[in-house]
Amino acid sequence: MALLKYEEIAESLRARIAAGEFAPGETLPSGRDLAEQWSVSRATTVKAMDVLRNDGVVVAKQGTGFVVTETPVARPVGSRRSGSARISGGMPFVRVGEPDWSEPPVRVAAALRMNSGVVTLRRIRLHQLPDGSPHSYAEAWFPPEVADASPRLAQTAPIAEGTTRYVRRQTGRYPVEGVDVTTVRLATESESHHLALPEGTAVAVLLHTAYDQDGLPLVCEEGVTPSAHYEQVDTYAM
Predict the structure, then answer these.
(1) Which pTM value belongs to this model?
(2) What contacts 66, CB < 8 A, 6 or more positions away?
(3) Do 17 and 25 touch, CB atoms closer than 8 A?
(4) What is the widest separation between alpha-carbon atoms in the chain?
(5) Dihedral through CA 9, CA 15, CA 20, CA 22, nearest 10?
(6) Is there a contact between 122 and 104 (Cβ–Cβ < 8 Å)?
(7) Phi and psi for 215 in degrees, rounded to 5?
(8) Which pLDDT does position 82 carry in this prediction?
């Protein structure tokens, strides 16, 4: 299906940001300039910017226009529902260490349908509350065929367009189904350290696996949230 004009403009700007033409904190072309460049109305350029703003790629600054986001935003594991925007429910995060190739835990390997001993690319992030304190800790594991085709996943720099769009751009694969499994256990020593928790604190652990259009796993994320921050609310007909 062909992209609508505002979607085409948004994707073009995404690609230019990803290529480094516009660095974090830099101002994007004005709505007037974009309208002239693309021969569209100002309303169309506004819709394009709304797409980028909803995905947390840009923010509006009064008197300046739209600038590339300086603080990366991502949704906690398990909140990636169909049709949801990245900025909706998204939280600032910091990268923990550098992405590395490691053998995943048994249940992550099972979710990725990988044999034991096979290493995958791991990216770790720490979600933060508005005051900068830790909210949740997430490890994302990418199968070798996804990571090899998407070299920026191995870099610490944030991916402004988001990993989902980047992987789709690189591989043509995109998520069509997500499976979430929630369990409860005590935090590990490493998790307690990053989340500033006392030893023996209970945490909710959500294992999220995204499957592509062919039913193959794209990524498996394990998100750990302290009991004080975890709440699940379901509303349904009876």
Answers:
(1) 0.76
(2) 27, 28, 49, 52, 53, 58, 59, 60
(3) no
(4) 61
(5) 10
(6) yes
(7) 80, 15
(8) 53
